[in-house]
User: Fold these one by one.
Assistant:
Number 1:
Amino acid sequence: MKKDWLFLMESMLFKHRLLIWGLVAAVVLTLPFWGLSLFVMRTIIMIGVFAMLALGLNLLTGYTSQVSLGHAGFFAIGAYTSAVLMMRFDVHFLVGMLAGAALAGLFGLVLGIPTLRLSGSYLTIVTMGFGEIIRLIIMTWTPVTNGTLGLMSIPRPRFFGTELNLNNHGFYYLMVALVFLVALFCHHLLNSKVGRSFRAIGEDEVAASMMGLQTTELKVLAFVLSAFITGVAGVFYAPLMGFIDHNTFTFDVSILILSIVIVGGMGTLRGMFLGSAILIVFPEMSRFLMDWRFVVYGLLLILMMRFRPNGLLGWQSRLPYPIRGKKKEVKGHGISKRQRSF
Amino acid sequence: MAYLSVKEVSKSFGGLTAVGGVSFEVEKGQVVSIIGPNGAGKTTIFNLLTGVYEIDSGTVTFDGKPIHNKPVQDIVGAGIARTFQNIRLFPKMRVLENVLVGMDRKMGYGLLSSVFRTPKFKKAEQEFTQRAIEILGSIGLGDEIHNYAENLPYGAKRKLEIARAMATGAKILLLDEPAAGMNPQESVELMDFISSLKNQGYTLILIEHDMSVVMKISDKIYVIDHGVKIAEGKPAEIANNEAVIRAYLGGSAKDVKSQ
Ligand SMILES: Nc1ncnc2c1ncn2[C@@H]1O[C@H](COP(=O)(O)OP(=O)(O)OP(=O)(O)O)[C@@H](O)[C@H]1O
Ligand SMILES: [Mg+2]
């Protein structure tokens, strides 16, 4: 096989993976003590939230190729459910999280089942409608959601009598824990028969059904899991903001999540982190561009589509498929470079 | 009763009768070929057998049980798998993963086992990966297991489709023009492989245009034209059948024999 630079890079990363993961862990865990400003820490937490959202949408769009533009709806369901429960019934944050994520998952089921007969743009349009319906419900169901006034002073999570906030970096560590769990969940799921069947369905649904896959159930499952993860992100987001209303969960949010998935690299986990970092930081960094921001933004997306249609980190691994029960080693193998261009 | 028995199946698309009351039987362990000119309805028969289309009338019985108009997954579960005339692999997945998808149904662990990486998950993955490697080795793709399906040359893609069908645990394999696009050398190798499948106990139904291939490996041949069966018999009988020669080859008996 051709030993191109990608193979060399991947082998290097693989060889030193323990060192690299160790470094990443060290940086992530000590970050609050580096003297970064609260604004920077807050931005980093936002990157984590949107990485989680992208990981959730990626399950659906990156793997089963079902494009959703309504994920702001699941995000809102998670956020509102836990916020209302915490405010009205004084439940613990973790209880709120379970309820919020479960309800988002349930809505994933409700949306997933009727939309199964739809594919492509039709499905996407229905998900868009879903996002808007959730917003309408938020605006009109005043007794519960407080209508257009939104929910204020959402209580912060408490663990062992300590309130988590930005100053004591509780929010940061909670974000790290959640992102870690969500990423691990996705990693395990996708490197199993479930992930393989998701990808098979995304690539060729008819062929997948001919392999005996229960394509219908699997597509709904992808919807539910995706909604669940998005709900988790919403549950965390509500107390982070302290205030949520119908404008927190607009169509723009759905677009942003999808953009992160595309820019980072559909069907990869690594891409969700880079994509989130870029699309969260860019608007902050480019305030001086004022109204031109969106022109630049659009231009960047077009350039991406032209030069890296698979996303920034969307390459196919050149390392051998990890075969279980075999000693791990990297050596040349039969991946040819035909049809690949970078 | 025959292992697979197809009785009077019909299928129309709008006004066009693609298959009009075709019957045939396949015995266990046989290689049966379906031949006929372009547009005769051969692929449509495969689509009816595998549940891609519902049949308008008729019955399909496999191993004593009716299987017509069942969901495709149930038919695969019963033991019938196929390849596609226009290759339909999972192009961005590895060769090995393509085969593992075929084994999905049999892996027998669930969502929670996947997420928590239980011993059950590890054991199943390990076992089935080995089995997949064996299948790929047997069809001559042993060196390509790590490659991506889209990178394979044409002939290897066709082989991978067969490997994937075998992986489902099927007892009958329906191969739709498996030698199409292969060079003569590859095509000979493929035929040897198909013969070896027969020896392994598989039952095969083959759609193939290459007459030399069909004549050599078939136990029985059915000839379809315009959606109806016009002849059936052993290879030697078909080669001498005037109706076949007229319909299928549009030439004289000499042309067929000289093949
Ligand atoms: N889904 C469909 N909708 C409409 N017509 C169809 C459909 N599938 C097949 N047909 C028609 O049915 C007829 C039989 O097609 P089929 O693909 O079964 O032929 P075939 O014998 O496999 O031909 P070939 O040797 O070219 O593969 C053709 O006229 C084709 O156009
Ligand atoms: Mg055909």
Number 2:
Amino acid sequence: MHISEGVLSAPVLVTGALLAAGGVAIGLKKMDYEKIPEVAVLSSAFFVASLIHVPIGPSSVHLVLNGLLGVLLGWMVFPSIVVALTLQAVLFQFGGLTSLGVNTVSMATPGVIAYYIFNLPIRKGNNSVSALAGFAAGVTGVGIGAILVAIALISTGESFLGVAKLILFAHIPVMIIEGIITAFCVTFLKKVKPEVLEVSK
Amino acid sequence: MKKQNKVWNMEYGAGTNCSLARNIFTVRTLLLSAYCLLLSIYLLPTVAYAHKVSIYAYAEDGMVFAEGYFSDGTRTRNSLIEVFDAKTGEKLLEGKTDNEGKFSFNIPKATSLKLVLHASMGHRNDYTLSAKEVKEAMGIRESGVRSQESEVRKQTEERSSRLSKSATPMTIASGVSSAEIETIVERIMDRKLQPVITILLKLKENSEKPGLTEILGGIGYIIGLMGIAMYFKSRRKG
């Protein structure tokens, strides 16, 4: 899901960078003192998750965890992901520094969407409802992310439908695994430390 | 339990000055991050790595052999490779990798070649073969360009004439030309060096995987950034 350096054209890169900067600014504004460690821990989790390769499927894909981060962090998913992506680009050469903005937008936006749809049912619903909502959040995170990557790649001349299908297809195993992980994490956190699920408005 | 939680919640929500709540929180955070670390270390030897493509190429016998792979070692199957003239940027040819991520082609032009690998989903990397490497590969065997070929022949002839002039006539006297010897030696060398090249490629591949240093370094950066963020937020609060 990381778009490499030199693939996208300048206007797409600039648009991505501006959108990402906006998201990060909103996220930083919403981030209060008590939430900082959580943002950092989840940032680390995201950073490491990209190393966990999912051996099923036709291509080389890995865990993303953006659905989980989104549900737990809301808009703060932007600063959390931008830090992790920068480090991945510098240390692992995943993605690239010029495509950082686009990659941040394509992975953090689904997180914010997952937050608005699934945070409430996870907090207020009974156990099975929150597990289901968690699963859906994990699936949404990767699914919408794949669609956003496809949109970004249109500018390279690849047909949108072709790429979208390819990326979605390649990520089906990841979507399911992420769904399960997210469902497990949110139900566990809800039992042990429910205030983690609350995000200040 | 529920009540306790509620009380704790209230303290936590209302009393940012309550050091107890904060202490509990930091301890829990530390435990969580330690758990994350341990988990990542535990997973290290078994997981494979993904999400970066690499391409490597070498020229030999008038051909270029290219190989593409993801950082977890998976080959880039059926991916587009474009070949450019590295100096002018002109596109010379393109082709797709086979099931083992390999792609080979005859050298189209005696110049520095830039190979660009497009794996699916926005993955891309390139590799440049130097003009010297390309020319050497073209000059050695018949499959190369004629002018190169004749140059080599002239050189070998010169060498052999020099050799025959010298005091000890060596093997040339026995009817084997030095060009033939060269071919034979090369063929044997090729055969002997093949495993070595494979090992070198494997090593190169492994060295590109992110190691423990990078992972721990990255987590360290994040913890450091967390410290900075907390410092500034706490100062603003007064």
